[in-house]
Automatic annotation (TrEMBL):
<dbReference type="InterPro" id="IPR017871">
    <property type="entry name" value="ABC_transporter-like_CS"/>
</dbReference>
<keyword id="KW-0813">Transport</keyword>
<comment type="similarity">
    <text>Belongs to the ABC transporter superfamily.</text>
</comment>
<keyword id="KW-0547">Nucleotide-binding</keyword>
<protein>
    <submittedName>
        <fullName>ABC transporter ATP-binding protein</fullName>
    </submittedName>
</protein>
<dbReference type="GO" id="GO:0016887">
    <property type="term" value="F:ATP hydrolysis activity"/>
</dbReference>
<feature type="domain" description="ABC transporter">
    <location>
        <begin position="3"/>
        <end position="233"/>
    </location>
</feature>
<dbReference type="InterPro" id="IPR027417">
    <property type="entry name" value="P-loop_NTPase"/>
</dbReference>
<keyword id="KW-0067">ATP-binding</keyword>
<dbReference type="Pfam" id="PF00005">
    <property type="entry name" value="ABC_tran"/>
</dbReference>
<dbReference type="InterPro" id="IPR003593">
    <property type="entry name" value="AAA+_ATPase"/>
</dbReference>
<dbReference type="GO" id="GO:0005524">
    <property type="term" value="F:ATP binding"/>
</dbReference>
<dbReference type="InterPro" id="IPR003439">
    <property type="entry name" value="ABC_transporter-like_ATP-bd"/>
</dbReference>
Length: 297
């Protein structure tokens, strides 16, 4: 299974160009699509999920033309959208059973088996009789995965799944996703760098509708070695620092500010640090690395 996206573009009627000539090759496994709010992730996900038409470009899932053969794609698609409604007064077990009928699993015994397996896989078996209205955010997301997994999808699309989850729920949810990637294409769209670094062997960084960088996280971090420098400063010193250096990111740590700078040479009184995926992301966004390399530090 593989997904080939070629020169995909989409402009909304209000003139916003959400995707600009996007091309990506996505093999089996967990693929991360990382970008800030408004980057075009959901637009791309909706096109892949056959819910929206591109203006231009092609998408192929193996031999299936995703734009033209929507019914074919839907047979093999699992989609967990950013937001989805549930019937609050229905139990997880009953609603999943209902969706299984819609997915074409007519036989009652086959359905019983599938519903039980999915509820166990998503760790909802013990709470299957509870009404969905009483589920926590994490439980709802896991229920969304159970629905998306009906019919053994070969293409699974998960759009910003961990936003709003508490840390324990997030870990549980990411563990669940990590089990899915082996025999299908799983695309995880997110603005949270850790989601990608924990799960994905390949990823793309997108901003303003353009793919800025396609990378394997481990290799990209290696390539940045020797170029990311850190200094811990008082917050009040930040404006001066911004004036003197190309800062790629700032973070607060116990009330002080941790500054990261991209530089191929020693930038002064800084400590060299081991680059992480956040450094890859911010160096790409700042134009130091990637397809749209614009700045040289
Ligand atoms: N239906 C629409 N009509 C007009 N503009 C839209 C529509 N949907 C999205 N946009 C705009 O297209 C751009 C890309 O939006 P999109 O939702 O794809 O980004 P995103 O990366 O998923 O961001 P977010 O995480 O905020 O959802 C944004 O500027 C957004 O305002």
């Amino acid at each position: 299974m593989k997904l080939q996206i070629t020169n995909l573009s989409k402009t909304y009627p209000n003139g916003v160009q959400a995707l600009k000539n996007v091309s990506l090759f996505i093999p089996n496994g967990m693929y991360g699509l990382l970008g800030p709010n408004g980057a075009g992730k959901s637009t791309l996900m909706r096109i892949l999920a056959t819910l929206q038409e591109p203006d231009q470009g092609e998408v192929h899932l193996d031999t299936i033309d995703v734009v033209k053969q929507k019914e074919e794609v839907r047979k093999t698609l699992g989609y967990l959208p950013q937001e989805f409604g549930v019937y609050p007064k229905v139990s997880a077990e009953n609603l999943l059973d209902h969706f299984a009928i819609l997915k074409g699993i007519i036989s009652r015994s086959a359905r019983k088996e599938v519903v039980e397996a999915l509820l166990r896989q998503t760790n909802l078996w013990d709470v299957r009789k509870q009404k969905l209205g009483g589920y926590s955010g994490g439980m709802r997301q896991r229920f969304g995965v159970a629905v998306a997994l009906l019919g053994n999808p070969k293409l699974m699309i998960v759009d910003e799944p961990t936003a709003g989850l508490d840390p324990a729920e997030r870990v549980r949810f990411l563990n669940l996703l990590s089990e899915l990637g082996e025999n299908s294409v799983v695309i995880l769209s997110t603005h949270i760098v850790e989601d990608v670094s924990e799960l994905c062997t390949r990823m793309a960084i997108i901003n303003k509708g353009e793919i800025l960088h396609e990378v394997e996280p481990l290799k990209a971090m290696q390539r940045l070695k020797g170029k990311i420098w850190q200094k811990i400063i008082e917050k009040s010193a930040l404006p001066q620092m911004e004036h003197e250096y190309t800062i790629i990111s700032t973070k607060l740590l116990s009330g002080r500010t941790v500054v990261h700078v991209y530089s191929e040479e020693v930038p002064g009184d800084f400590d060299l640090v081991q680059p992480d995926l956040e450094d890859v992301y911010f160096s790409t966004m700042a134009g130091h690395i990637g397809n749209r390399k614009t700045a040289v530090a």
